[in-house]
Amino acid sequence: MNLEALEQKAPIVRKLANAQEVSWINPYYGKTEEALRGIDLSMADVEEAAARLQRFAPFIRRAFPDTEETKGLIESPLREIQAMKEELNQSWKAGLTGRLLLKMDSHLAAAGSVKARGGIYEILKHAEELALEQGMIRPEEDYGKFAEPEMKEFFSRYAVHVGSTGNLGLSIGIISATLGFRVYVHMSQDAKQWKKDLLRSKNVQVIEYTGDYGAAVKQGRAEAEKDPYSYFVDDENSVSLFLGYAVAALRLQGQLDELGVVVDEDHPLFVYIPCGVGGAPGGVTFGLKLVYGDHVHVFYEEPTQACCMVLGIATGLHSEICVQDIGLSGKTEADGLAVGRPSKFVGKTVEHLLSGEFTLEDEKLYLYMKELLDRENVFIEPSSCAAFAGPCRIQSEDVCLEYLKEQGIEDKMEKASHIVWATGGSLVPEDVRESYIQKAIETEEKAGGR
Q1: Using one digit for the tens of pLDDT, what is the confidence trace for 339-349?
Q2: What pTM was computed for the model?
Q3: pLDDT, tens digit, for every residue of 118-132?
Q4: For residues 140 and 84, what is the distance between their CA atoms, to the nearest angstrom?
Q5: How many other CB atoms sit within 10 Å of the CB of residue 52?
C-alpha cells in the first residue's frame, strides 16, 4: 500500500512519514466495559498471574536479596515529582495541573526495568510447569526450593531463547540463568554494549545481529525450534508476558491508595508509557483498565523514527505494516523503543483501550533525562524519558484539549493525577550514565539552554 492510500486510511500517516512529532488521539477509543468484552483475557487471569508471583516470592527472596524488604515481590516505588512538574510547566509551557508521579520500574529489583515484570513472570511460569510435570516440586511445597542446587541441575537440561533490543533480554537472561537454564539472547544492532556485557557476565550467551529487532526475533525463534528442549519467549505474541505486566495495575492500586490519590469520575488518572513492540505498555494498559475503567486514560510515547504502534493502530494494519514501509529508519537513541513492527496481539488488544499516542524527537529524551536528574535527583535511561512527552502536551495542545472536552473532564484536571512510567535505568553503568549526561548537556547547549 502506497503512502497516499495509507494517508486516506489515516491522515496522521503523512506526518509520521515526515518524522514530525505528533499528538494523536485514538479514534477507536471506546468505553472500557464494551472494549473488554472483545478481549479473551479477564481479571481472573491477572489474579492468577499475581498468585503465581506470590508463590515464587520465597525463591525470589533467596535469589535476589534486594527484594528482602518486599518479601520476594519485585515491585517499584511510586513517588510524587512536584519539582519536575514545575520544570515541565516552566521550560516546556506544559500548563499541567493536578499531581505528577513517577512509577519507578526503572528501579525494579533483579533486572532494573519494566521488563522485570513480564519477562521474569514468563520464565517463572515456564519453570513451574516443567518442575511440576517432572515431579521436581509439588504444588503445596515451599517454592524456595527453586533456589536449591538440584533444581539448577534439572533446569540445565533446558534452554531459553529470546530476541531483544536490550531490557527484555536482561530480564529473561538474568532470571533464566539464576534458575539454571541455558540462555541465548538474540540481540539487534540497537542494543547497548553494556547490556550485552552484563548478560555475558551472568553466563548468558549473547548472539549479535547486524539487522534490527525483527531480525533478532526471527533468528531466535528459528534457533529455538531446532531443539525440543528449548523455549522461545515471544515478545510479540506472548500472553504470559502480557499478564505479568498487567499485575502492575493491581499493585499500583494499593500504592495510589497509600499516597491518598483518588481515582474516580471527578479525579481522572492519566498514565504515560514508552512503547516499543507493545508488550509491557499493553499489559499495563489492560490491567489499569480492569481496575479503573473509564477513569484512567493511557497514552503511549514513541520516537519519531520508530513509531510502530501508532502506525499499526492508526492504519488498522497492526503487524502488517512497519515504519520502514513509510520511509522511516526505525533507528533511535531510545534503544528499548527501537522497533519497526508492532505486536499484532497487543495492538488488537488495546486498540479500543488506548487513549492516544505522542511521538517525539530523540534530543528531547536527553533534555527530559537531565531535568529529572537535576530537579528530582532520579536517573532513568533515555528510553524511559519518552514518557514525559505526554504530560508536556496533554493540557497544552488543541487536539488533547479537545479530547479532554469530549471525555467530559476538561473542568476536572485540577484534581487529576498523572503517572509517568519509568521503564528502565537503575542498571546503567556509571560511565554510560556520565556519557548520557554529557550528551544531555550538549543537547541543551545546542537548543540554546533551557
Answers
A1: 999 999 999 99
A2: 0.95
A3: 999 999 999 999 999
A4: 47
A5: 18
